[in-house]
Amino acid sequence: MIDLGLTKLAVIGAVALVVIGPEKLPKVARMAGTLYGRAQRYLNEVKSEVSREIEIEELRNLHKEVQETAQSFKAGVETMKSDVEQGVSSHIDEVESAWRGEEAADKAHAAAIAAGSTMTATPDDIERKARDFRRKKLVKTSSVPAWYKNRHGARQHVLSGAARVRKFRPGSKSTTTFF
After folding, report:
1. 98, 112 in Cβ contact below 8 A?
2. pTM for this predicted structure
3. Tens of pLDDT along 145-165?
């Protein structure tokens, strides 16, 4: 913007008074003010319209990205659905074959191993998993160990209010007892 100080405005006013004259100067000043106001409003309208267009374009791009993400997510869900359905149908076939007889189950098991599914649990695996589960649960639910309490100064025995007052009462403590 143009840097107009008080002295520059005074010089412009004096020149305008001499050139235009005292009779037309108020009308010209009013006209210049209204034109300046109109120009400012026009510039503000143009700025707001440009910013609105930019925001609309950003929203369109965001909408496009969200739709692309939704489509890729939907495709991923569809593939997961088909994989799960295929796995469930193979397990249903195994259960049905086991229900019919042992030979059919062995054939289905051999087919599953050939397909890459080696998910058979032995009793040792089940026992190990149960042991790990119990150990993790014990770690989560157990209290704080005594060595940690001793190191960090935590109380091990709860004192009543009177006992605490007696223990921390200032003054001299006599070593003699009443009895």
Report:
1. no
2. 0.37
3. 667 767 776 566 677 888 878
